[in-house]
Protein: Metal-dependent hydrolase
Organism: Haloplanus aerogenes
Amino acid sequence: MVLALPVAYVSPEFGAVALVAGLVGGVLPDLDLYAGHRKTLHYPVYYSALAAVALALAVAVPTLLTVATAFVLLGAAVHSVADAFGGGLELRPWEATSDRAVYDHYNRRWIAPRRWVRYDGSPGDFFLSVALAVPLLVSLGAPLRWLVVGALAVAAVYTTVRRVLPALAVVLVDRVLTPLAPEGVLAYVPARYRA
């Protein structure tokens, strides 16, 4: 959303659509959380290339559709690229055992984690979320401001429970899902969640 903030100042008539589209684009890649996470819907190269074209089109022909498309793609691109600057795909990323951060479909290889932000849900990750939210909280009106506050609340809870989630996930899969799930369902549970 913060990437769309300048649009709200320069072209207020497109501000809301750019902000919401940026949010949607920023969330979109993580819809692959349980189906090939950071590979199925993460496209650091393709989203970036498409976003560049879509942004140029939105500047040349500014409509609600071109602006929305540009910011969905920009949000997805930034998310996909940013995942390479965090931890890897391991269940406990603070252990730094994975050499996979995000899949680069163009080069057909995994990009290694840089760990500039140690892991998702780390205190540093939360601090970054707060720093990016401040301009939005100062600039936005009530409906969108509350959306940002809600996102920060989710980030705060996630940061608080992040280090216990791996153990909880393994216990839930082992003690709840395994005995109750119909045959074949466990094949769809990522291996990192199985004991």
Q: What stands out?
A: The mean pLDDT is 93. DSSP finds seven helices and two strands in the chain.
